[in-house]
């Protein structure tokens, strides 16, 4: 799977642009602030209906423009393709179209265009809040387990009802019991999907990480969000008074976490920024392998400022892993020379120069295809 055409209008400082990228490696180079990351952001908006740089719309939309629009032609293989389009208005309105038909859910975009982001903020996956690691985990489960989305929606509805009752006491005993049963059932289903996913992810992640660096005693484990010795129904029954005092349900899959440790220590407390970046890269590349194995298409990787915090050896090792995925990759850098070498001769590599928001194909000094 790959994007054969990308058209962007109204995203930050980018001039209106239409690109025909390589189905494999695409290198975008230029000075800081030239617009390289803005193109990755536009692709992210196309696949996720949101930016990875800002939760607010105004900074994303070009000054004095009413909206931003991104279009993509996705090649699915076997002469099949899908057209995606998304428009976001300053007012907050979102219009999503797949093959010309309007859709309401961004989940359909994500299902059609699986994206993996590796950027300078990637270390937050290790040292940030559990919510970030749950999002990482659930992205993977969503793409390999078709039943996950429905179970997750059931969970959200049950949590909403129980939390409302905890705060306002508006449900009778029968309704309380019904929503608690629904919450427990959805939670058990989600926990099962997550456990199966982690079981599949761990060996792939460990192999991937070992090709990047050696970390003795590194462990990846999963915490489901409640006592492993008790059922969630039992935990909920015994924690009602505490939950009412807090105003929300404290146990359940909404509190799950991935734990990455070296010995008895949190890995983020020991690893350097460069090492953290490599661990996150290994996690995301392992996810890409699982998506491919699930026969639901390959990921597209967005790698912002790949050379930062990596020496030549680790940069080359990371490029080799991305190349072995046989998927489409968009990489940004300031100096293209550091990324020109290391690719196999038969790997299609396209270069694009970005300057003052304008993007143009660049054959480069070494004759790399564009």
TrEMBL record:
Q: Which PROSITE patterns match?
A: RECF_1 (PS00617), RECF_2 (PS00618)
Q: Which domain of life is it from?
A: Bacteria
InterPro entries attached here?
DNA-binding_RecF, DNA-binding_RecF_CS, P-loop_NTPase, RecF/RecN/SMC_N, RecF_2
GO BP terms: namely: DNA replication; DNA synthesis involved in DNA repair; double-strand break repair; SOS response
An annotated Gene Ontology molecular function? single-stranded DNA binding
Known role: The RecF protein is involved in DNA metabolism; it is required for DNA replication and normal SOS inducibility. RecF binds preferentially to single-stranded, linear DNA. It also seems to bind ATP.
What protein name does the entry list? DNA replication and repair protein RecF
Q: What is the lineage of its organism?
A: Bacteria, Pseudomonadati, Pseudomonadota, Gammaproteobacteria, Pseudomonadales
